[in-house]
Design a protein that fits this description.
This protein has 229 residues and is α/β, with parallel strands linked by helices. 37% of the residues lie in helices and 17% in strands. It has a single domain (5-228), classed as Alpha-Beta Barrel (TIM Barrel). It has an 8-stranded parallel beta sheet with strand order 1-8-7-6-5-4-3-2. It is globular, with a radius of gyration of 16 Å. The protein binds D-xylitol-5-phosphate and zinc ion (ZN).
Length: 229
């Protein structure tokens, strides 16, 4: 079982002080920085690109940067983000002409590869590449905006994804993204996720350390429920 990772989404950070925000949330105990890239094409919103990722590296950020590409096409952004210092790069299958080739490109460029499934996308979309994934991301909101409510049916999908990854014996991380908070993260951990993205629930609070700690405790509680069940 992978150790749990908490991945704050900087989509909810104060962009005017982004470097400082990233350092604060890492000091507060976060494991990974989740970097939501939106292109006003694959999703109806526009966020930030590789220059911002490179700027965070230049600012001294050494923690893994987990780039979630909600863009179409994907190839050029994969190359640009690999060059900009991304650690993980996750794509959506609908945005790629050939998912296997895109995953291969991410890995050839020395990054870890992820595949993201929207709430309505079936798990079998990942089947052909499961063994080559470092991360399977299940969206628990429709991609495009932060601050939405967690879709409860995600829990069952997380359980099914956990079973599928275990059956195949792959160590890929199982990430859940959207609407997570200290109040629901125990259930998500109990269902079998190990990587937890939270934007507004962390950056919307005054004390990041308290929130990250509350999330970590809830995750531990969820993991013990899972171990017991
Ligand atoms: C949605 C993004 C999420 C989102 C998470 O398209 O992928 O990462 O920003 O934000 P919260 O935690 O506010 O739902
Ligand atoms: Zn995301």
């Amino acid at each position: 079982m992978n150790p749990p990772f908490i991945a704050p989404s900087i989509l909810a950070a104060d962009f005017a002080r982004l470097g400082e925000e990233v350092c604060s949330v890492l000091e507060a105990g976060a494991d990974v920085i989740h970097f939501d890239v939106m292109d006003n094409h694959y999703v109806p919103n526009l966020s930030f690109g590789p220059l911002v990722c490179a700027a965070l590296r230049e600012h001294g950020v050494t923690a893994p940067i987990d780039v979630h590409l909600m863009v179409q096409p994907v190839e050029r952004m994969i190359r640009d983000f690999a060059r900009a210092g991304a650690s993980w790069i996750t794509i959506h299958p609908e945005a790629s002409e050939n998912v296997g080739d895109s995953i291969g490109l991410v890995r050839d460029l020395g990054c870890r590869a992820g595949l993201a499934l929207n709430p309505g996308s079936p798990l079998h979309l990942a089947d052909g590449v499961l063994e080559r994934l470092d991360l399977l991301l299940l969206m628990s909101v429709e991609p495009g905006f932060g601050g939405q409510e967690f879709i409860p049916s995600t829990l069952d999908k997380v359980r099914r994804a956990r079973a599928r990854l275990d059956e195949r014996g792959t160590p890929a991380r199982l990430q859940v993204d959207g609407g997570l908070s200290p109040d629901n993260v125990a259930d998500v951990a109990a269902a079998g996720a190990d990587t937890f993205v939270a934007g507004s629930a962390i950056f919307g609070t005054k004390n990041y350390r308290d929130t990250v700690t509350a999330m970590r405790r809830a995750i531990e509680q969820g993991n013990s429920t899972r171990a017991a069940g």
